[in-house]
Specification:
It is a single chain. With 242 residues, the protein is an alpha/beta fold. It has a single domain, classed as 3 Solenoid (Pectate Lyase C-like). It contains three helices and eleven strands; from the N terminus they run βαβββββββββαβα. The chain has an eleven-stranded mixed beta sheet, with helices on one face. Strand 1, helix 1 and strand 2 form a beta-alpha-beta unit. The protein is globular, with a radius of gyration of 18 Å.
Length: 242
Amino acid sequence: MKTNAQGVHYRDLNEQIRAAVQDGVEDIVLDDVRGHRYIGTGLPAGVRITINGIPGNDLAAFMNGAELVVNGNAQDGVGNTMNGGKVVIRGTAGDILGHSMRGGKILVRDNVGYRTGIHMKAYEGRFPIVVIGGNAKDYLGEYMAGGILAVLGIGCSNSPAGSYVGTGMHGGLMFIRGRIEPHQLGREVGLGKVDESDWAALKPALDEFCGAFGHDVSEFKPADFVKLSPQTTRPYGKLYAY
């Protein structure tokens, strides 16, 4: 199915997508997408949507296994509470990417905004993975509770992460390629080297990123990364309970 979204209200566009999926359509192409919200919400596995343009907020929210490929940039809230599936963005993405994400993969070729990975969590066998090719703004991995979040810093001359990295983090792992200073970190995380088990966890995500965007995985080495991990599973426990 191929649809031109120009001039179509986002509710009508999403109704068309849901109707097509119910009719058994597995491959959908959307042209001239210009800020249409909620594309991919709740869609199951077996559905692939190619988006030509710039989708609006909450792309792939609550998605349950579909695959979305964006040939352009994306706005805020990509993968909000996403359960499973895959999102490939051939450009940049806005703020709160992966908010409360609990499964699936999000791969972004270039940069992302603020609070990427906020409250990501592993949930009942689901394991979220986010890989950012460029850099990320402040509060990366805020309140992160599970999964893997990697920032590759491709093309970055400065640190690929902003300030307050990992504030409130209490689970999961972050990997940052490039320079990061202690003053950029939240109090709840510590820096460490990437060991063999870390690399075994990260390498498949790098393979997938390179396959999506045409990079050579050999350009990434364990020594190029630092690992950020939480210092406690209850960083604010004494504020609420004793």
